[in-house]
Design brief:
The structure holds two protein chains of two kinds.
Chain A (H helix, E strand, L loop, with lengths): L2 H28 L1 H5 L10 H29 L5 H23 L4 H22 L12
Helix pairs in contact in A: 1-3, 1-4, 3-4, 3-5, 4-5
Chain B lengths: L1 H26 L1 H4 L11 H29 L6 H23 L4 H21 L2
Helix pairs in contact in B: 1-3, 1-4, 3-4, 3-5, 4-5
The chains are: A mainly alpha, B mainly alpha.
Chain lengths: ~140, ~130
């Protein structure tokens, strides 16, 4: 398995962790009795729960790009040290993003986000310019 | 086909950049780099870019799933699959400025065209 695909599995684990953390903070903030019900009437959540919810939504914005790039680099076999570094930076920056957002410290979250964007750009660069056998599956049958 | 996946990634980053930059232009950097605890009212343009991004994210996983299915089933080069993928990406790319300039109907038609591209991919993958 390529390093990018390994990080793709990690990204799925991070997604599950993200959802669980968000749900825990949100449910505790809004009340478990309300959370277990149909949630028909809206309830306010506290500031930290709202930040974690925004962090999850932000994660979901760039996750599809990472999935696509990890697949491209695997299928074309163009992946190299640079794209593996990009996947590493993206993943760890996305992890750092969560406490950075929850803490509410200005700027740290933005820096983590831009670092993750830099990781994606490394992967795009390699996907478009890298060399590999480009084993495109022939249109068989 | 893999070029289309790279193009998809770029298109998503362009959506995010438009949304983020329009929001920064509307509400200022001090809010965007903070914890964003207090809601702000974005400009109409920033709100449109935000809705365009949300809309793109609704069908993007379907596109990825179909591309993955196409590669896994050796049908990545089938005409319906490549044609559908190009149609999807082209229409989604046009959707963004169409939303921003707010011409009635154009955006809606582009959404339909993009979704028909997904349907073509679906047929190409599962009904060879």
């Amino acid at each position: 398995m390529t390093p990018e695909l390994t990080y793709l599995v990690y990204a799925a684990i991070l997604l599950i962790a993200h959802v669980l953390i968000q749900a825990t903070f949100s449910d505790l903030s809004k009340g478990l009795g309300w959370a277990l019900g149909p949630q028909d009437e809206a309830r306010e959540q506290n500031a930290v729960a709202a930040r974690i919810q925004r962090a999850l939504r932000n994660y979901l914005e760039t996750l599809p790009a990472f999935v696509a790039l990890a697949l491209v680099l695997a299928v074309t076999e163009r992946g190299n040290e640079t794209s593996a570094l990009g996947a590493t930076i993206w993943f760890w920056a996305r992890i750092a993003y969560v406490p950075a957002y929850a803490s509410g410290i200005p700027l740290v979250r933005s820096i983590a986000w831009f670092a993750s964007l830099g990781g994606l750009c490394l992967m795009i660069w390699v996907a478009l310019t890298g060399t590999g056998p480009d084993l495109l599956i022939p249109a068989s049958q | 086909m893999t070029l289309l996946l790279a193009a998809f990634s770029l298109l998503l980053l362009i959506h995010i950049s438009c949304q983020g930059l329009a929001l920064k232009a509307a509400v200022g950097n001090s809010w965007t780099i903070g914890a964003r605890d207090l809601p702000v009212t974005p400009s109409p343009l920033a709100a449109r870019f935000d809705r365009a991004l949300r809309n793109f994210l609704e069908t993007a996983p379907v596109f990825l799933a179909l591309m993955l299915a196409a590669f896994a089933s050796d049908r990545a080069e089938a005409a319906l699959v490549t044609g559908g993928a190009v149609t999807y990406l082209a229409a989604r790319a046009a959707y963004l400025p169409a939303y921003a300039i707010a011409v009635p109907w154009v955006r809606t038609v582009l959404w339909q065209v993009a979704t028909l591209g997904l349907v073509a991919m679906l047929i190409g993958v599962f009904f060879p």
